[in-house]
Write a structure and sequence with these properties.
This protein has one domain. The radius of gyration is 18 Å and the shape is globular. By secondary structure, the protein is of the alpha+beta class. It has one helix at about 140-165, and strands at about 15-20, 30-35, 40, 45-55, 65-75, 75-80, 95-100, 100-110, 115-125, 130-135. The relative contact order is 0.23. The strands form 2 sheets. Strands 1, 2, 6, 7, 8, 9 and 10 form a 7-stranded antiparallel beta sheet that branches. A 3-stranded antiparallel beta sheet has the order 3-4-5, with no helix packed on it. The protein contains 1 helix and 10 strands, in the order ββββββββββα.
């Protein structure tokens, strides 16, 4: 059976102003995991979270508690540029797993220079099997290079995470944002 063609990827119809947004130069940076309680799991997409169930608390019958089931499932995670933690707003990216493909909504800078920045939302898709990125046809030409550079960096980030998982890591460490590292260990 041939691989399923990706559905049309959305592109916002107009720009949005973000008063606290930043204009990040494409320069020499990488994406890093800016999320917690993430583990590695099986499949094309490396990031999973523990599956929990809600049960009655044994000591307090009117209360409930969450208990790990011992299983994991693919989970959306947040990534950001590795140059500074939790200051990016418009530069955060949420990765959403879709089997061997991953979708990411980018907020591409259209103008800046003063306070705030104007952005355009563009969704890209990364195919982990073929290591191919898909930029929507509707992406404005002036934003295409920015979309391609950021999508390629997302693919590189996912390849690094899969490589770390293959080396036996149970949870992200090398791809974890430096600001979330705790003495070389992940905060889980």
């Amino acid at each position: 059976m041939p691989p399923e063609e990706p559905a049309a990827l959305p592109v916002a119809a107009r720009d949005e102003f973000d008063m606290y947004g930043v204009q990040l130069d494409l320069g020499d940076w990488s994406y890093a995991l800016d999320d917690t309680q993430v583990v590695y799991g099986p499949g094309w997409y490396p990031f999973h979270r523990d599956v929990q169930r809600i049960e009655q608390h044994p000591a307090h019958p009117l209360l409930t508690r969450r208990t790990d089931t011992g299983r994991t499932e693919c989970a959306a995670v947040r990534i950001s540029p590795d140059v500074e933690i939790r200051s990016w707003r418009n530069e955060y990216v949420v990765l959403c797993p879709l089997g061997q493909r991953t979708r990411a909504e980018l907020r591409l800078s259209t103008t800046g220079g003063g306070p705030g920045v104007t952005t355009r939302r563009v969704t890209v898709e990364i195919d982990l099997c073929t290591q191919r990125i898909v930029i929507p046809d509707g992406c404005p030409e002036k934003l295409r290079e920015q979309a391609e550079v950021k999508a390629r960096r997302i693919l590189d980030f996912l390849i690094d995470a899969r490589s770390e998982r293959r080396r036996g890591a149970a949870a992200p460490a090398a791809v974890l944002h430096p600001g979330l590292r705790c003495g070389g260990q992940t905060a889980r």
